[in-house]
Structures are given as structure tokens and as C-alpha cells.
């Protein structure tokens, strides 16, 4: 069996949903389980409505609510014929009613807690999964809807919950294996789970990818297919470098390092369960189904040593940590690496040795926690952050010639080779935002020469 994760941009309208139904029909012989994201921009609009309600602007909150109701009903009716709409409405209407109650409560309490934000955000995946399941049924696919809140069990870290794998795996197998045995295609929302007592949680941004990996690992899937709006993992962000090329294969480590370093796909959490279960992930384009995408988990051992991809991300702070005078040297760097692992992907190691480390912190909201975690290790200096560029390849650990070429290509930018405590070797440096496009173009010319249609092996 396989897991197919469908991104929000792939179900943004009735035509897109019909396209996805066609794709799913083509994979029925592989016994798919479908994990779907909220329809395009729905999560953002849900949270905007919650913020408006909590600020006392119920009028704006309800205007967004009405917009979302109209949008979902219009697109759903575009893929579900009149005879099936009463059954679909019987699923959607109670959720619309619950969402309206949440907004009224937020307007009354004027407090948008992380728990309340998760409760509101969860409706996007519930709506999308019910609509897609109904559309599949009416497209001739024997589909069964599964409530993701009943099978993905998490801790209580609202807005960034982590799965509790023991109960989650058991619930997924109990719910899904009988459906697969009966020849049905199960459909569930991604991103959303619940605590053991049933309180709704979310897995964080791009959490639907994470959900797909959790499902795939629990069921021992042959492969996890992540359907999105790009042809695979690219050698750079195409918004920064439009000539970016597709990468054919990546190791789990390379993919995880890229995800933590700013790449759009895949979600960093996806690589953990998939890697532990040795379930490969393939990134595919729902609008270009002919493309073979990018396969994560299996690299071609005969491929030449090369840079795989160049990722970049903005960081609010640069942290410089120096071991205290007289402190034992052997515990400093392992301690820093443990903190980076704990706060992945927020914290990136730029350079480190036995006495000092330089780190980049993505968002300010984790600064207090990270400062406390680093306090026992040394003296911390905090500066304004900037863009961090990461050049990633497993080959940097085994090819001195590739290391030399990569450091030379980034020579004027103070590049640092990072080997210890990261998922995959990389070269990192910081850069001003206005220089980024030119630098990425130059790095491609030096390290990844070739036409835009050529694929990086």
C-alpha cells in the first residue's frame, strides 16, 4: 500500500479536486490511503478570523467565516452531484456551526490561546477531507472518511504538537487496515490530531506532510507520495532563482537538512518517521503528473559527487556562545548540538568547536526558551539576524574535492563547513537579502552548471 498526501494547492477548487480524483483512480491498484491538507489559504483565513474575533472585531471574523462557508460549499457542489449533497452537508454543517461558536467565544473572552487557535485551524482539514472523500465516491472510488482527530494522538504542545507514536500507530492500524483489506480508499485530514483526552491539536506549519509520514510509517507503506505544485525538490527556491533544476534523489539526511534550512518541501518532521521505518518519500506535481519528481531515501551510489541543493532562510537572531572560563571543553559542543536537536528546525548551527559556537535562530518567540537552554553552556551574545544560506550534500563528507570547490565558490562570504551534529553535511554562510539572487545564481554557475531541463542526480 501507499500513502498519498494531497497539498492544499492541489484541492483549491472543484477542477483541482477532480484532477486529484483522477490521479487517485490511477493509483487504486497500489491500495492508497489519502492524507489531505486544507484547501488553499483556508488555514490562514481561519486564523485571521480567530484573531479578529479575539481582538473584538466580530464583524470581520464573521465576514471571513461567511466567505469560507461559501467557498467550501461552492467548490464541494462542483464535484458532488445534487443527489449526494445532503449527505455531504450533514458532515459540513455541524463543523460550520462549531466554528461559529468558537468565534463567538473568542469575541467574548478576548483571548486567543494556542489551544483555541488549534481548535479553529483544525476545521480546514476536516472540511477538505470530507469534500475530497465525497468527490472520490462520486468519481467511482470506494472511499471512506476517517476523522484524523481520532487516530493521530499527540502531546499537549498546541500549535506544534508531537505525535505519541505508540497509541497513534495502534489507532491507525485498527482504523485503516480493515478498510484496506476491504478494498476501500481511506481519506483523512493532515496537520490535525488530538491529545489522549481528545483535545484538538495541530502539528505546526506544513504538518500534513508530517501526518502522511506518520501514517506511512505506522502501516509500513511501500512509498509516501507527496503531491504538491512543483515537480520535486529543486536546487534552489525558484522565486529566488527561476532557473532552479529538479533533484532526482536525496538521502533522508539531505532532505532533512534542506527542510531545516528553509526549503519549502518536505516538512522537517516528515523525515523522522519515514526514515526510521525506511519508507521512501516521493515529491510529485499534481499538475504535471508525468514528472518522476524527487525520491527521498534512496540515492544512486554511482552518481558523481555533487552539491544537491542550496537553501536559504531568514533568521531573527544570530547567537554567539562562548564557553565559560575554566569549563570542561569536552562537554561544550555536545551540549550545543543537543540544544540544536531539541529546538530543530528553529535553531541552526553555523559553526562550532570545543569553546565557541555560532547559531541562527529563526523566530524570536523561541528566544527565551533557547537562552535558558544555553545558559549552562556558556556566555551568550545576541545580534540581529539575517539570511543564512546552506549548501547541502552528503558528498561533502566524502569528497575533499567537492568541499574545496564549494568553499571556493562561496569564498568571499565567509563559508563554514558544518559536519558535526547535523543531518547532512553542509556549507553555511550569512548574506544580506538584497545580494541573495545574485549569489544563488553565481553558486549555481560554479557548482551546478547545466541547463534548466537537466536533472541533478
Short description:
The chain has 457 residues and is of the alpha/beta class. It folds into two domains: 2-229, Acetylglutamate kinase-like (Carbamate kinase, 3-Layer(aba) Sandwich); 309-447, VC0802-like. It has helices spanning 14-26, 42-54, 58-77, 82-109, 114-121, 123-138, 165-181, 207-219, 252-260, 271-277, 332-342, 367-374, 400-409, 436-447, and strands at residues 2-6, 32-36, 143-146, 185-189, 192-194, 200-202, 223-228, 249-250, 281-285, 294-296, 309-314, 317-323, 347-352, 356-361, 378-384, 387-392, 416-418, 426-431.
Number of helices: 14
- The geometry reads as globular
Uncertain segments are: none
CATH fold descriptor of the largest domain: Carbamate kinase
- CATH superfamily caption of the largest domain: Acetylglutamate kinase-like
From the helix content, strand content and strand pairing, which structural class follows?
alpha/beta
Q: How many strand units?
A: 18
Average pLDDT number? 92
The fraction of residues assigned to DSSP E strands is 15-25%
Structural Rg: 23 Å
CATH architectural type of the largest domain = 3-Layer(aba) Sandwich
Helix content: 40-55%
Main sheet: strand order: 3-4-2-1-7-9-10-8
Largest beta-sheet characterization: 8 strands, mixed
CATH class of the largest domain: Alpha Beta
Give the number of domains.
2
Amino acid at each position: 500500500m501507499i500513502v498519498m498526501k494531497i497539498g492544499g494547492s492541489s484541492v483549491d477548487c472543484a477542477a483541482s479536486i477532480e484532477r486529484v480524483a483522477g490521479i487517485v483512480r490511477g493509483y487504486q491498484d497500489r491500495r492508497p490511503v489519502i492524507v489531505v491538507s486544507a484547501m488553499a489559504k483556508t488555514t490562514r483565513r481561519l486564523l485571521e478570523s480567530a484573531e479578529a474575533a479575539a481582538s473584538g472585531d466580530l464583524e470581520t471574523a464573521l465576514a471571513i467565516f461567511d466567505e469560507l462557508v461559501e467557498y467550501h460549499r461552492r467548490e464541494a457542489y462542483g464535484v458532488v452531484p445534487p443527489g449526494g449533497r445532503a449527505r455531504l452537508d450533514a458532515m459540513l454543517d455541524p463543523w460550520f456551526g462549531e466554528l461559529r461558536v468558537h468565534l463567538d467565544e473568542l469575541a467574548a473572552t478576548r483571548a486567543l490561546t494556542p489551544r483555541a487557535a488549534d481548535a479553529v485551524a483544525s476545521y480546514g482539514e476536516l472540511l477538505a477531507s470530507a469534500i475530497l472523500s465525497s468527490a472520490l465516491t462520486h468519481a467511482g472510488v470506494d472511499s471512506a472518511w476517517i476523522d484524523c482527530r481520532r487516530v493521530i494522538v499527540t502531546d499537549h504542545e498546541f500549535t506544534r504538537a508531537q505525535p505519541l507514536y505508540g497509541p497513534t500507530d495502534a489507532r491507525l492500524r485498527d482504523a485503516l487496515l480493515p478498510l484496506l483489506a476491504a478494498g476501500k480508499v481511506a481519506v483523512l485530514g493532515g496537520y490535525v490530531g488530538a491529545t489522549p483526552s481528545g483535545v484538538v491539536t495541530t502539528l505546526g506549519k506544513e504538518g500534513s506532510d508530517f501526518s502522511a509520514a506518520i501514517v506511512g510509517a505506522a502501516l509500513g507503506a511501500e512509498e509516501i507520495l507527496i503531491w504538491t505544485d512543483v515537480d520535486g525538490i529543486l536546487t534552489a527556491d525558484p522565486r529566488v532563482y527561476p532557473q532552479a533544476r529538479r533533484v532526482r534523489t536525496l538521502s533522508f539526511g539531505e532532505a532533512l537538512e534542506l527542510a531545516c534550512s528553509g526549503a519549502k518541501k518536505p516538512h522537517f518532521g516528515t523525515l523522522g518517521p519515514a526514515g526510521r521505518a525506511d519508507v521512501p518519500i516521493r515529491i510529485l506535481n499534481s499538475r504535471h503528473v508525468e514528472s518522476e519528481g524527487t525520491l527521498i531515501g534512496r540515492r544512486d551510489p554511482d552518481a558523481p559527487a555533487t552539491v544537491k541543493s542550496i537553501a536559504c532562510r531568514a533568521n531573527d537572531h544570530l547567537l554567539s556562545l562562548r564557553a565559560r572560563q575554566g569549563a570542561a571543553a569536552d562537554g561544550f559542543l555536545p551540549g550545543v548540538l543537543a540544544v540544536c536537536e531539541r529546538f530543530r528546525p528553529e535553531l541552526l548551527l553555523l559553526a562550532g568547536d570545543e569553546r565557541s559556537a555560532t547559531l541562527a535562530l529563526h523566530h524570536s518567540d523561541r528566544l527565551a526558551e533557547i537562552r535558558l537552554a544555553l545558559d549552562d553552556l556558556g556566555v551568550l551574545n545576541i545580534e540581529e539576524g539575517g539570511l543564512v544560506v546552506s549548501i547541502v550534500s552528503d558528498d561533502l563528507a566524502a569528497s575533499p574535492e567537492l568541499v574545496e570547490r564549494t568553499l571556493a565558490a562561496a569564498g568571499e562570504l565567509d563559508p563554514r563547513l558544518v559536519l558535526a551534529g547535523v543531518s547532512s553535511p553542509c556549507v553555511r554562510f550569512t548574506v544580506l537579502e538584497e545580494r541573495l539572487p545574485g549569489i544563488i545564481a553565481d553558486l549555481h554557475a560554479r557548482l551546478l552548471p547545466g541547463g534548466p531541463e537537466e536533472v541533478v542526480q
